[in-house]
Amino acid sequence: MKRRQFVRTCAQAGVLGSLGLLSGARALPSSDEVPVSGRLKFGTTPVFLNDHLGFLGRWAPYLSGGLGMPVEFVERRAYRDVMALLRGGEIDAAWICGYPWVVNRQYLRGLVLPLWQGEPWYRSYLIVPAHDKTTTNLRDLSGRAYAFSDPDSNSGCLVPRATLVKEGIDPDHHFGRTFFTWGHPNVVRAVGSGLADGGSVDGYVWETLQLSDPELTSRTRVAWRSDKYGFPPLVVRGTLPMDVEVRLREVLIGMTNSTEGKALLAALNLTAFGPFREDVFDGIAKLVEIMASRRR
User: Fold this and answer.
1) CA-CA distance, 90 to 71, in Å (whole number)?
2) What percentage of the chain carries pLDDT values higher than 70?
3) 79 and 217 share a domain?
4) Long-range contacts of range 80-85, CB-CB < 8 Å, 24 or more positions apart?
5) In a domain, 66, yes or no
6) Rounded CA separation 185/202 (Å)
7) Same domain, 37 and 130
8) For a Cys staple, 147 with which of 40, 84, 190, 226, CB 3.0–4.6 Å?
9) Does pTM top 0.70 for this prediction?
10) pLDDT class of 31 with cuts at 50, 70, 90
């Protein structure tokens, strides 16, 4: 993606974010429930999983059996595409990122939080090629090629851009060339192959890839780790019937109670799915505010 296009895309994401954050108190979802049309449609992106198709093929029948209705995964390339489907009521649930949750929660309800190593937190990693032994921060990559995952990703776009702003650096003009990879594993591939001199990646994804594909991660080095932020949540549309939401939450949290559920969690490198907590995303909300203040 050309630099000018990247700047425009991130600027649009920031404007939408500032509008969502600054619109006042969170609006309550509509009291008018819209029934599920025969099957529960669950939105995902390829941002997280390396073998997402194989895993979803196993997860769908597991969730269907526990929920008592068919579950269909609906995949889209980008978070904003999934969010558009949620807004339009075309899907019922989704696994999104904390960034789009913060700026769009007025029409969503939090479902569960994934727990990684027992906690609902993760970090953004700055990764560089393994042969780069000197880079320690984003400033060191001035004028270089940089890979982002998704314009609406907290770890893959918001964290590095807000970090530069906090340091008094214009993120739109700091790097020499930027592009989106539309998936954290793709950021690792881009940096490991030398296509980019650095990139921002979900720390959970990098650590999980280190277990499943160490040859890939060995071509990169983690140069910097951010503070902890709320792990990407699972959410439902605000008009989903409450009984369906409750059953889906029970199935997800109950995965630790069965052999099959534990195997699926292990494939995700997760400890469990736990109760939703909105305060977990306060740190991301502060980053959104930083980027919104920059444009006032």
Assistant:
1) 14
2) 87
3) no
4) 80/13, 80/151, 80/152, 81/45, 82/43, 82/44, 82/45, 83/152, 85/43
5) yes
6) 9
7) no
8) 190
9) yes
10) low
Residue at 125: amino acid letter: Y
CB 160 within 8 A of CB 124: yes
Distance CA 3, CA 20 (A): 26
With tokens 């890979």, the residue in question is 147
Read off the pLDDT of residues 82-135 as tens digits, 9 standing for 90 and up: 999 999 999 999 999 999 999 999 999 999 999 999 999 999 999 999 999 999
Rounded distance between C-alpha atoms, residue 269 and residue 207, angstroms: 9
Based on the domain organization, do 141 and 224 belong to the same domain?
A: yes
What is the domain extent for residue 130? 122-229
What tokens does 286 get? Answer: 């502060």
User: Residue 234's beta-bridge partner residues?
Assistant: 95, 112
Residues whose CB falls within 8 Å of the CB of residue 227, separated by 6 or more in sequence, listed in order:
123, 283
The DSSP annotation for the chain comes to --HHHHHHHHHHHHHHHHHHHTSSSPPPPPSS-----SSEEEEE-TTS-TTHHHHHHHHHHHHHHHHTS-EEEEE-SSHHHHHHHHHTTS-SEEE--HHHHHHHGGGEEEEEEEEBTTBSEEEEEEEEETT--S--SGGGGTTSEEEES-TT-IIIIIHHHHHHHHTT--TTTSSSEEEE-SSHHHHHHHHHTTS-SEEEEEHHHHHHHHHH-HHHHTTEEEEEEEEEEEPPPEEEETTS-HHHHHHHHHHHHGGGGSHHHHHHHHHHT-SEEEE--GGGGHHHHHHHHHHHHHT-
Distances (CA, A) of 103 to 171, 181, 189: 20, 22, 29
Amino acid identity for residue 107 in this structure: Y
* Assigned token pair, 112: 């569960």
Cα dihedral 213, 219, 225, 231 in deg (nearest 10): -30
Q: Are 91 and 83 in contact (CB under 8 A)?
A: no
Unique residue bearing structure tokens 């020499």 = 176
